């Protein structure tokens, strides 16, 4: 049997629990260590020899299409299919039917994976599902496996403790479209296939896999990816600066004198850091970012085109692209009770800041406080409650 050479990548979802970041861009485009989540998926496919890709896009699809284009820059060929309404995984897959080969892979575009994660599936014959051991969690579909075959999916994790989970990667033949019908859930489609006698092989992986569900997951993923950063010192590093550990610095970036940078850290292209700035581990800084003198940044994800004024202190925080922050800013870190979509979470967090906001001088953000997109915060304010998109705080 010939090897599968095509993957259908599902990249249409929004990511409701990741607002304010997904208000302006789809979840698959959220940056982790200066690259979109979806790029890691594409690279993992390419490294396994899968270079023909159908990408199903929907919410804010222009972000995906503008970034990836034809795929040539990433060593792949990309065709696009649209899912106008994000109704479910099976519904998304159905939109790619007219572009599908007789045999193909299906993979979620919003989960972080690496080459070795999907390698076992590459060598499997359809129909097959990639599974992985994981702590019991109601967020994931539990898979019941018997003699290497999938017997059921979506079982309550409390009823099947220790069972593996479905991580959203499959090998199918084109026959799968005959089972979708009006179903929107992949769980329903797979259960229907099993009931009608199709065998679905359970293929286990122990490779890296992580979903980003909440804002603080971005920092966890950032830390995981940065730990694998290779030393790469581009740009200009002025006299007196000290760089320790795994640090990647992009072309055109200037590290001014007397900066102190401790890896793992990634700094993008055309940035200006310092002088006398400190960048501590697990920090990623995008392109065209300014970190002004005497500022201290640690365990933080900073998007493209952000500017941070002098004497700022930012810890355990996420700052989305295009935001401008005045001097003497403080993003305090600590235990916070954060409510998202009606769910309460106790996490250690700094500031969660959306895109294109203007923050004045001397602003203090208390732990876990969210600032929406396109906000205006006047100087000398202390933020203790979440600020909605477009707000003016005077």
Structural description of this entry:
15% of the residues lie in helices and 34% in strands. The chain is built from seven helices and 40 strands. The strands form eight sheets. A nine-stranded parallel sheet has the order 15-18-21-24-27-30-35-38-40, with no helix packed on it. The chain has an eight-stranded parallel sheet with strand order 14-17-20-23-26-29-34-37. The longest helix is centred in the middle third of the chain and has 12 residues. The mean pLDDT is 91. With 394 residues, the chain is an alpha/beta fold. It folds into two domains: 208 residues, Spore Coat Polysaccharide Biosynthesis Protein SpsA, Chain A (Alpha-Beta Complex); 170 residues, UDP N-Acetylglucosamine Acyltransferase, domain 1 (3 Solenoid).
Q: Please give the alpha-carbon distance between the first and last residues.
A: 67 Å
CATH architecture name of the largest domain: Alpha-Beta Complex
Biggest sheet strand order reads 15-18-21-24-27-30-35-38-40
Strand content: 25-35%
Task: Please give the share of residues in helix.
Answer: 10-25%
Q: Could you give a short account of the major beta sheet?
A: 9 strands, parallel
Q: Which structural class best describes the helix and strand composition? A: alpha/beta
What is the CATH fold-level name of the largest domain?
Spore Coat Polysaccharide Biosynthesis Protein SpsA, Chain A
**Could you state the oligomeric state of the chains shown?**
single chain
The rounded Rg comes to 22 Å
CATH fourth-tier homologous superfamily of the largest domain? Spore Coat Polysaccharide Biosynthesis Protein SpsA, Chain A
Our count of helices gives 7
Number of DSSP strands?
A: 40
Mean pLDDT score: 91
Q: What's the shape?
A: globular
The number of domains is: 2
Segments where pLDDT lies below 50 for 5+ residues?
none
CATH class of the largest domain: Alpha Beta
């Amino acid at each position: 049997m010939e090897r599968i050479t095509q993957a259908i990548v599902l990249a249409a979802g929004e990511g409701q629990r990741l607002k304010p970041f997904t208000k302006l861009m789809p979840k698959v485009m959220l940056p982790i260590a200066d690259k979109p989540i979806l790029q890691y998926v594409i690279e993992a496919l390419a490294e396994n020899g899968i270079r023909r890709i159908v990408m199903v896009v929907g919410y804010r699809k222009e972000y995906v299409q503008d970034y990836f284009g034809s795929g040539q820059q990433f060593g792949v060929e990309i065709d696009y299919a649209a899912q106008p309404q994000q109704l479910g995984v099976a519904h998304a897959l159905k939109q790619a039917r007219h572009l599908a080969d007789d045999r193909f892979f299906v993979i979620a575009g919003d989960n972080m994976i690496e080459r070795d994660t999907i390698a076992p599936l590459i060598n499997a014959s359809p129909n097959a599902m990639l599974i992985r051991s994981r702590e019991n969690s109601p967020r994931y579909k539990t898979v019941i496996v018997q003699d290497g075959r999938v017997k059921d999916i979506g079982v309550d994790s409390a009823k099947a403790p220790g069972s593996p989970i479905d991580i959203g990667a499959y090998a199918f033949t084109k026959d799968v479209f005959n089972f979708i019908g009006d179903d929107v859930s992949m769980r329903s489609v797979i259960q229907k296939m099993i009931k009608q006698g199709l065998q679905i092989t359970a293929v286990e992986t122990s490779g890296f896999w992580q979903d980003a569900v909440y804002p603080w997951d971005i920092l966890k993923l950032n830390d995981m990816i940065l730990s694998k950063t290779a030393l790469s010192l581009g740009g200009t590093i002025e006299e007196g600066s000290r760089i320790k550990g795994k640090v990647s610095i992009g072309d055109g970036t200037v590290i001014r004198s007397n900066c102190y940078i401790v890896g793992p850290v990634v700094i993008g292209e055309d940035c200006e850091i310092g002088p006398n700035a400190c960048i501590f581990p697990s920090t990623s800084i995008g392109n065209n970012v300014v970190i002004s003198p005497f500022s201290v940044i640690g365990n933080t994800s900073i998007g493209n085109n952000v500017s941070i004024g002098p004497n700022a202190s930012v810890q355990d925080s996420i700052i989305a692209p295009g935001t401008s922050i005045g001097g003497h800013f403080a993003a305090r870190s600590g235990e916070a009770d954060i409510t998202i979509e009606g769910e309460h979470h106790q996490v250690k967090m700094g500031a969660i800041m959306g895109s294109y906001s203007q923050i004045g001088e001397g602003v203090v953000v208390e732990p876990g406080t969210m600032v929406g997109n396109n906000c205006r915060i006047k100087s000398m304010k202390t933020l203790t409650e979440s600020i909605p998109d477009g707000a003016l705080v005077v």
